[in-house]
Design a protein that fits this description.
Strand content: 15-25%
Family: Belongs to the glycerate kinase type-1 family.
Number of domains: 2
Radius of gyration: 22 Å
Largest sheet: 6 strands, mixed
GO biological process, one term: organic acid phosphorylation
CATH superfamily of the largest domain: Glycerate kinase, domain 2
Structural class: alpha/beta
Order of helices and strands: EHEHEEEHHEHEEEHHHEHHEHEHEHH
Distance between the termini: 22 Å
CATH topology of the largest domain: Glycerate kinase, domain 2
Protein name: Glycerate kinase
Organism: Nakamurella flava
CATH architecture of the largest domain: Alpha-Beta Complex
Helix content: 25-40%
Oligomer: single chain
CATH class of the largest domain: Alpha Beta
Pfam family, one: Gly_kinase
């Protein structure tokens, strides 16, 4: 009897990771009804992280919070029996939470994720895992900090506007109202980039354009983040020249939310997929598996840079378990795949070349791809790399 461990990421815009796993499981059982299938959906710290935690048995806790431009959205966190909570920025105030997905580079805020964290702290959580991929804002985490009780004031003592542009008016920061549980809470942040907060490789320059920032907006946001770093540094007693955390690799993640997590929450940064694999108990499920199936919407060069399939493959190969992948499309040659620990890829476009049709009919096409996978792999599982 063959045991297959399913650890796919989502097919973005089409299927959740759990739905991918369900479709693959159905296809495998079509060919071999005796196969033992263990489902362990994953994510890389961005959107889908919360769903992966829930699929692993974490209890969802709903919370209504401000979206990236202030409108209320239904989000939440997931909590394990040991009290650890998983919070996903993208679910609270990410790009997909923008009304009509209309980009607002200067005005979008990270307050929503701060509000989710506050709810978790109010409920007694003292261990928080925070996934910060997919943000809509470039506010240096200022919104997160204000949602946790800090006050960001202008020269007249009034609250500054939300968003990165609002930081231009920042005169001083009052941290006295910061949620008291912050000091007693361990924060771990899933972060897969090494950008600093500021400069040509910083949050505004590298990621601002993806959020609608033109060249003038990028310059304006970078200057505002520089000012934010200096004022926060002064408020924490480091001097006004600039906060030491601003240069830390990962400080520029999620429009600078990485910086606020480091500077205010005292967070520790970890690669997203490694963190999710630990959270979901993937390593505990590996022993006894004959094959691991991972995947995502498209296998490409980004897959090799800390995305979920590469992380799953690395962990499985280290345990001596062969790995294959499913995907909508594969843009990597076989040698490159195998260097990443993936022995073969089974894609939807091999069955249906029209991408739009693949997106619409992803589940049945994936089930069909999984039948081919089963025919080739379950009777003679992939040889260990």
């Amino acid at each position: 009897m063959v045991t297959v461990l399913l650890a796919p990421d989502k097919f973005k815009g089409s299927l959740t990771a759990a739905q991918v796993a369900d479709a693959v499981a159905a296809g495998l059982r079509d060919v071999d009804p005796t196969v033992t299938v263990i489902s362990s959906p994953v994510a890389d710290g961005g959107d889908g992280t919360l769903a992966a935690a829930v699929a692993a048995g974490y209890r969802p806790v709903p919370v209504t919070v401000p979206g990236p431009t202030g409108e209320p959205v239904d989000s939440g966190y997931a909590v394990a029996d040991n009290g650890t909570a998983v919070v996903e920025l993208a679910d609270a105030c990410g790009l997909d939470r923008l009304p009509g997905r209309r980009l607002d580079a200067l005005g979008s805020s990270s307050a929503g994720v701060g509000a989710v964290i506050r709810a978790a702290l109010d409920a007694g959580v003292r261990n928080v895992v925070l996934g910060i991929g997919g943000s809509a804002s470039t506010d240096g985490g200022a919104g997160l900090v204000t949602a946790l009780g800090a006050r960001l004031l202008d020269a007249d003592g009034a609250e500054i506007p939300s968003g990165g542009a609002g930081l231009e008016r920042l005169d001083r920061i009052d941290l006295s109202g910061l949620h008291p549980a912050v000091a007693d809470t361990a924060f771990v942040v899933a972060c897969d980039v090494d950008n600093p907060l500021l400069g040509p490789n910083g949050a505004a320059a590298v990621y601002g354009p993806q959020k609608g920032a033109g060249p003038d907006d990028v310059a304006r946001l970078d200057a505002a983040l520089t000012h934010w770093s200096g004022v926060l540094s002064d408020a924490q007693g480091h001097g006004a020249a600039g906060h030491p955390a601003a240069a830390t690799p990962g400080a520029g993640a999620a429009g600078g939310v990485g910086f606020a997590a480091l500077a205010v929450l005292g967070a520790h940064l970890r690669p997203g997929i490694e963190l999710v694999l630990d959270l979901t108990g993937f390593h505990d499920r590996l022993p006894g598996a004959d094959l691991v199936v991972t995947g995502e919407g498209a296998l490409d060069t980004q897959t090799l840079s800390g995305k979920a399939p590469a992380g799953v493959a690395a962990a499985a190969v280290a345990a001596g378990v062969p790995v294959v992948a499913v995907a909508g499309a594969n843009l990597l040659d076989l040698d490159t795949l195998r260097e990443a620990g993936i022995q073969a890829a089974y894609t939807l476009v091999e069955i249906e070349p029209d991408v739009a049709t693949c997106v619409r009919n992803a589940a049945p096409l994936l089930r069909q791809a999984a039948r081919r996978l089963a025919a080739e792999q379950l009777t003679a599982p992939a040889s260990s790399p």
